[in-house]
Design brief:
Length: 237
Amino acid sequence: MKFRLLAFSLAIAVSSSAAIAEPSDSVLAFSTDNDLFAPTQTDRDYTAGVAITYSSNSREFMNNPVSRASQGLDNLLSSGFHTESGNRESAALEFGVYGFTPEEISATTIDRTDRPYSSLVYLSSSQSYQGLGEGSGWTTSMTVGMMGLDVFKSSQDSIHKVVGSDQARGWDHQISNGGEPTFRYSAAYHHYMGSNEPNQQVKTTYFGSVGYLTEFGAALVFRGGLISSPDNRFNLS
């Protein structure tokens, strides 16, 4: 029921905006990764994930209820955010699920020397802002979700049955087994290097988040090829 509620929230936010949206720069993306694609095919640590993302710069979509809540949190946590960051250029909604398992998935007991079982079903709302001056931008993200549901366990069991892999037998010990709400807020500042060309771009990013994943860091990011998306939507962090 909780899984269906998150999916329904995303569907309502997208469809209610798309129904009245004018032509705009919009992207619907599906992404998946799985340890089956890796050479070692081990379930240790991060094992798989699936996400559907819709992003757009249309005013109608950026004013959907979920994005408005996310922008309201931006304003609450950073006084004068609009003044400091410039215009909001796009918004995105993402619905997904991912899971983590220990190395020995056939064991039914807890191994306290290894990573525990865990899974997350989430809905994320991201905002992309262009800086007041050229060469900078901000991205923020608000994520709400449920840990400990059986959604990932069921899908992993089905996939392993098809490919003939061992069944994971320790999901009864996953973190927050049965379901527990969780939250994360993240923000990233992007500085675009002056050497950017039409077919290649470089930027430095400083980012941080609090919630179920609390971290701070910096990154140097490069992309090349046929580039169509705006600078501040390149590799949202």
